[in-house]
Design brief:
The complex is a heterodimer of chains A (261) and B (259).
Chain A lengths: L1 H53 L4 H23 L6 H21 L7 H24 L8 H27 L14 H12 L6 H22 L5 H23 L5
Chain B lengths: L2 H16 L9 H26 L4 H25 L3 H22 L4 H28 L4 H28 L4 H26 L5 H18 L4 H27 L4
Helix pairs in contact in B: 2-3, 2-5, 2-6, 3-4, 4-5, 6-7, 6-9, 7-8, 8-9
The chains are: A mainly alpha (261), B mainly alpha (259).
Chain lengths: 261, 259
């Protein structure tokens, strides 16, 4: 009887400990995901803030947003650094990336830079590195295989956000009659809407999350209409992209909560 | 247990306890300010549209309209993002739906018949926004006594826009009811300023700013007496100055957290 009781107790303790570890792994993976995807979605946001600042549209709001974004970016980088796999090359890459971002900060404060366009394009390239690293960091994590499908959906979300932010940056550089950018304004709204539709199809999505996605879709269409119009309306574009981005950031934790052990 | 994992677990607990949210949350007070400000924006838009379609101060009106549309949209979404109450959320949904119907009036060219419809829609929209602000006020248990002065300033802001709009409508002889409303609103502004002047002028923080409003109003009022086409442009410019002076008082309230 005593033996049975002992074995039963050991089994219960073991399963309890296992469930705690599984829970910790899930929380840990969720925390990393939040940090990585937030930073991916920040990549072009900082640049967008810069463009609005130099064009004197919602300057104060954009300066504040850039400050908040960079602060949060750093906070996320600290989290990510705790999860780096034991891979020297990747660690070096991460350190270099962080160094470049920090170096760009000084230039981000220079709102009179005559070479703003090349600075913007370089900065966008620097931030692209973020995406490559994210994949490499993710692959080695506990919980990645089990939640690969959700991670793919998270990637979709960050792609839509980045494509939209990029379009807004181009809109500000190309449509502004005072500027002489030779870049082309290309935005495949259908492609982005398709991605949002694919997110809408996720099962078990609560109604409030669906409402966020629907709002994002409407915003995307409004932005596309604005791009098609001949007149240049930077302030309206600011309002649209700001709403779009804030809805995306609200949707992110909803998506992460779909992770399973 | 791997020491790295222990550190990671500790970090995890630490970050969880921080529960950092990226977006800055807005206090109930700020939400109410945004809601009442949206109603002011609506009246600015109505005024600007009439000036735009009649080619009076067109460029300035368009500029102000563009900026105000963006601010209006920003406000609605900022409020929506903070709401958790189902009733308020559904009201906000209705406001956003109304906005979708309303915005094309602002960006498209309007005939005089379209303008009548637009003006009627604006009236309904304003009621909707007022109702929403009142619900927020009740929901957040804001103290009526504390907010009395702020609400008076918001009323003055709306009256400035209405008077500027109605002055042009009267000059263009659009309809008699707007002319009657014009007289009413001028009297309302006048009595509000008279009743409040002692209280506001004795306030160390906003006294000087309110004095600027009174001085501006005296000048504004002199120009309102005779509706002449040449006066319309002056009225438009004066309304901008009045608006700025009143905005400075609102900022002061927010800066010193007087609410």
């Amino acid at each position: 009887m005593k033996k049975t009781y002992l074995i039963f107790s050991m089994i219960s303790i073991l399963s309890f400990t296992q469930s705690i570890f599984a829970q910790n792994n899930l929380e840990s993976f969720s925390r990393l995901s939040q940090a990585i995807f937030e930073n991916l979605m920040f990549s072009n946001r900082v640049v967008r803030d810069y463009v609005f600042i130099i064009s004197n549209n919602f300057k104060e709001k954009s300066i504040k947003d850039m400050d908040n974004t960079l602060g949060r970016f750093d906070y996320n980088m600290d989290i990510i650094s705790g999860y780096l796999p034991d891979d020297k090359k990747l660690k070096d890459r991460f350190t270099k990336f962080r160094f470049y971002v920090n170096q760009s900060r000084l230039e981000l404060m220079d709102f009179e830079n005559p070479n703003y366009e090349s600075f913007i394009r370089n900065l966008q390239q620097t931030f692209d590195e973020n995406k490559v690293m994210a994949d490499k960091i993710f692959e080695k994590q506990l919980g990645y295989k089990e939640n690969k499908k959700v991670v793919e959906k998270l990637k979709l979300l960050s792609e839509v956000v980045n494509a939209t932010e990029r379009m807004v940056i181009d809109y500000m550089l190309i449509k502004d009659p005072k500027r002489t950018s030779k870049a082309k304004l290309e935005f495949d709204v259908k492609k982005q809407l398709k991605k949002l539709n694919s997110l809408l199809k996720i099962k078990n999505l609560p109604p409030q999350s669906k409402a966020l996605l629907i709002d994002m879709k409407e915003n995307l269409k409004l932005m596309d209409e604005l791009v098609e119009k001949p007149d240049y309306r930077p302030k309206m574009m600011f309002a649209y992209v700001n709403n779009f981005s804030s809805k995306a950031f609200r949707f992110l934790p909803d998506l992460i909560s779909l992770y399973k052990n | 247990m791997n020491p790295n994992k222990i550190v990671l677990f500790g970090l995890l607990l630490y970050f969880n306890s921080l529960n950092a949210q990226f977006h800055e949350s807005i206090s109930p007070k700020q939400l109410y300010v945004l809601a009442t400000e949206s109603n002011v924006y609506l009246h600015i838009l109505v005024k600007d549209k009439l000036y735009q379609i009649n080619h009076i101060k067109k460029e300035m009106a368009e500029k102000e309209m563009d900026y105000t549309i963006a601010l209006f949209y920003e406000n609605l979404n900022a409020i929506e993002n903070e709401l958790t109450d189902k009733d308020l959320l559904s009201q906000m949904k209705a406001i956003k739906e109304f906005w979708k119907k309303f915005e094309p009036y602002l960006t498209n060219d309007l005939t005089s018949n379209d303008f009548k419809k637009f003006h009627f829609e604006a009236y309904t929209f304003s009621k909707l926004l007022t109702n929403f602000s009142e619900k927020l006020f009740l929901k957040f248990n804001l103290n009526e006594k504390d907010w009395k002065n702020f609400n008076d300033i918001q009323s003055l802001k709306i009256l400035v826009q209405k008077i500027t709009f109605e002055y042009l409508a009267k000059t263009l002889q659009l309809n008699q009811s707007l002319t009657n409303q014009f007289i009413k609103d001028v009297n309302n502004f006048e009595s509000l300023i008279k009743n409040k002047s002692n209280k506001f002028l004795n306030d160390i923080l906003i006294g000087n700013k309110f004095l600027a409003v009174i001085n501006e109003w005296n000048f504004f009022q002199r120009n309102l007496v005779h509706p002449k086409m040449k006066n319309v442009k002056t009225i438009f410019s004066l309304s901008l100055t009045m608006q700025n002076n009143l905005n400075a008082i609102t900022s002061e309230y927010l800066k010193w957290d007087l609410l």
